[in-house]
C-alpha cells in the first residue's frame, strides 16, 4: 500500500497507489499512480527499475497524476529504466497527449507502451507472462475500471478502484485471495458514485473473497468503524489499508 487515502491531505493516507509483486525479485505492477506514488516507492523498498507496469483504474487526479512524475524519473540519466507498460481505460492516449502538450518532452518516455482497455461490464482480459489481468466497468464514472490480477503461482488479488455496487465488481473479485476495496465515505454519508464500508463488505461476501482490505479513506471515514460495518456483511478477515503497509497474499489450498 503506497497510497491508501484520497486527494485530501491526511497523515499516513496519500492518494491512490498500490504495488503488486509476485514474489521476491519478480516484476512490480502498480495499480493506480496518484500523486506521491513515485516518492512512496522508496518507502516500499521498490526501485524504479523494478516497476514494469502501471495499471490505472480511471483518470481522476488522485489515481493517475504521478504517471508524469514516473516518466520524468525514468528519463533521469541515472535510471536504467526497463520497458514499461501502462494499461488503463480508453482515454489513456489522450491523457498522455495532454500531458505532453502541457508539460513538454520531459514526460515523454521512450520505453513506454500504452494499452487502452474498453470500459465494459463484461470485462477485458490481458494475458502477460507475470500476471493475467481483467478489467471491468465499475460505473464510478464512464471511464472507471476495477481490476483482477492472477499470478502464475495462483494468487488472486482484486482492486475496486473507485466503484459502485455493480455485478461486474463481484465478478472481478470472485474467489480473490485479497479484495482491495474502496470505502470512501461512511454509510450515513454515502455518495452514489462511491462505496461505503457496508457495501464493501457485501461485495466481498457476494464474491466469496478470502480476505478484504478496506482502503481509500476520505477524512469522514473512521477506519475502525468501517471495519465494524463491513464485518456485519463479511465474515472473513478484514484489514485496514495504511500507507507503507505490506500484506503477504497466499493462494487458498486447493485453488
Ligand atoms: Zn474517482
Ligand atoms: Zn478516488
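^ C-alpha cells above, recovered residues below v
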Amino acid at each position: 500500500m503506497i497510497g491508501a487515502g484520497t486527494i485530501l491531505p491526511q497523515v499516513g493516507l496519500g492518494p491512490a497507489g498500490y504495488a503488486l509483486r509476485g514474489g521476491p525479485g519478480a516484476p512490480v505492477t502498480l495499480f493506480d499512480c496518484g500523486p506521491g506514488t513515485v516518492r512512496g516507492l522508496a518507502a516500499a523498498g521498490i526501485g524504479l527499475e523494478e516497476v514494469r507496469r502501471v495499471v490505472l483504474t480511471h483518470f481522476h487526479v488522485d489515481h493517475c497524476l504521478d504517471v508524469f512524475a514516473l516518466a520524468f524519473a525514468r528519463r533521469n540519466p541515472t535510471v536504467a529504466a526497463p520497458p514499461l507498460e501502462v494499461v488503463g481505460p480508453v482515454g489513456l492516449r489522450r491523457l498522455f497527449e495532454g500531458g505532453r502538450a502541457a508539460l513538454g518532452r520531459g514526460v515523454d518516455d521512450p520505453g513506454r507502451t500504452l494499452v487502452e482497455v474498453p470500459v465494459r461490464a463484461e470485462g477485458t482480459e490481458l494475458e502477460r507472462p507475470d500476471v493475467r489481468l481483467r478489467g471491468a466497468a465499475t460505473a464510478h464514472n464512464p471511464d472507471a475500471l476495477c481490476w483482477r490480477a492472477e499470478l502464475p503461482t495462483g494468487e488472486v488479488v482484486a482492486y475496486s478502484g473507485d466503484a459502485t455496487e455493480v455485478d461486474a465488481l463481484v465478478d472481478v473479485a470472485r474467489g480473490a485471495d485479497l479484495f482491495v476495496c474502496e470505502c470512501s465515505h461512511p454509510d450515513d454519508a454515502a455518495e452514489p458514485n462511491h462505496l461505503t464500508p457496508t457495501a464493501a463488505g457485501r461485495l466481498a461476501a457476494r464474491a466469496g473473497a478470502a480476505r478484504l482490505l478496506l482502503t481509500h479513506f476520505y477524512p469522514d471515514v473512521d477506519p475502525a468503524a468501517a471495519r465494524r460495518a463491513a464485518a456485519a456483511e463479511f465474515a472473513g478477515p478484514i484489514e485496514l489499508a495504511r500507507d507503507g503497509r505490506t500484506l503477504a497474499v497466499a493462494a487458498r489450498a486447493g485453488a
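The two ends are 25 Å apart (CA to CA).
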